Sequence to fold (500 residues):
Amino acid sequence: MNQIVKPATTLVIFGATGDLAKRKLYPSIFNLYKAGRISKSFSVVGVARRPWTNEELRKTVSESVDSEDKELVREFCEHFYYLPVDVTNIESFNELKSLVENIEKKHNIPENRMFYMAMAPQFFGTIATNLKASGITDISGWKRLIIEKPFGHDLASAKQLNHELREAFSEDEIYRIDHYLGKEMVQNIEMIRFGNAIFEPLWNNRYISNVQVTSSETLGVEDRGGYYESSGALRDMFQNHMLQMVALLAMDPPNRLTPDDVRNEKIKVLRALRPISKDEVKHYVVRGQYEPGTLNNQEVSGYRSEKNVDAESSTETYVGAKLLIDSHRWAGVPFYIRTGKRMSVKTTEIIIEFKDLPMNIYRKDEEKLHPNLLIIHIQPDEGITLFLNGKKIGISEGSVPVQLNYCHNCLTTVNSPEAYERLLNDCMLGDMTNFTHWDEVESSWRFVDPISDYWAKHSEDLTMYEAGTMGPKESHELLERDGFRWWEYTNQINFYGSGI
Ligand code: BG6
Fold:
C-alpha cells in the first residue's frame, strides 16, 4: 500500500478573514487533517487587515468546518494563528517573519513555507515584493506561492504581475489556482481519453464533428457586482476555466503523466487556438447579459439592477463562442463553448458529438440516426453518458437512441473531495500538474484580448437573454449556422435533444 506523505509546513493565508478562506480553504485544510494528509507539525497563519486575535480566527475556523467531532476541531484550530497586517507596509512583513519563526520552533516545523494569496488582486505584486524584502522567503526548506485568479486583467497586466511575482518566486514555485482543475471529473478527462481504447483512436477530426463545453449557473452576480463589472464572464470564466477544459479535451497524449509533459501538451493546444481578429468577433463570439426573468418559480432581477452594477452596464454575463484549433488532430472541428449566469440550470458538462456514419442503411424510414454522443458530466452529476443507436423494440423497423450511463457519484460511497482540498494537497506535495503554467496564462490572454478590446468599443454587440433561460438566441444561431445545435437535457429522463 502507498504510504501517505504528510507534508510538514506553515501556510500563510493573505485574506484570512475573507469569504474564500471561510467557505473553501478552512474546510479543505480540515478534511486533509482529518484524513491524516497533513503532518501534525503544521500551522496556518492567517493575515488580513482586521484587528483580529488568534481566538477570533480559531472561532471562525471552527464555525466553517463541518464536523461533529468537537475534540478534533479544537485540536485542529490550535494550529491557527492570526496577525493583522497592512500589506503595503514592510514592517508588517517583518512581524510576520518573526511570528512564523516562533511558530516553527514551537511546533517543530521545518522551514517549508506556503503563501496563499486569497485577497484583492491589486495587492498580489506588493505582497510578493514585501515577502522577498522581509527575508521570510529566504529559507533552507521549500517555499511556494499559491495565487488565486484573476491573474491579470489582460496580457499586459498579467505579464506585469508575473514579473513582480518572479522577483520573489521562480516559475516552479508559483501555483496558479484554477479550481476547475481540481474537480474530480475534469481530472477524469485524461483517464477517459487516454485510458480507453474505444475513445482515443476516434478522438480527432475524422470521427468527431464538434465538441460542446457548457458551464451554466443559476446564480446571478450576488454581492460581487463591483468585481464582476470589470471582469464579465469572459475574464471570470472563459479565459481560465473554460479554456483549461478545452486544453484537456484537445491535447495530445503526454508521453508521461509528469507535470511538465501534461502542461506542455496543454500549452500546445492554447497556442494552436485560431486567433479571432477584431473583425471576426461578432461571427465567433456571442456576448449576452441577463434581463429580469423567472428562475425556480421566483422572479429575479436583471443584471443592471444588481448591487454595484451600472444601470447601463454592457458587461457580459454570458459568453458563447466557437473556437477552432489549428492542428492536424482538430482541423475543421468546432469547439463550442458557453458559460453564463442566471441560466436555467447549474451544470457543467462536455459533449463530444461523433460524425455520422458514411452511409445509413437504416435511413429507409427517413429517420436520421441519432448521432453518437459522449457526455462527460462534470457537475453536479459526475459521470459519463454514451449515446448509441439500437433497434426499435418489436417488429417495426428503425432505430432508437439508447444511453449507457455511468454515474460516478452514485456508485462510490466516498464523496469526491472538494477541488480546493485536492489542489492544496497537490501544492503541499509539490505536484504542479493541475496548476496553470505561465505559458498557459499568456496564451489564453493572447486569445482573449482581441475579443475584450473589441467589446470595449462596441457595446452594440451585447445581446440580452431572459434570466432562467439557456442564453441569447444568437448563441443557438452560432451552432445552427454550422448545422449543429446545443445538446442539453430536455426532460426528466435525461434525454438529450435540441437545446432550443
Ligand atoms: C469562479 C467564478 O471562478 O467560478 C464565479 O469567479 C463562478 O463567478 C465560479 O461562480 C463557478 O465555480 P463552480 O465550481 O461553482 O462551477
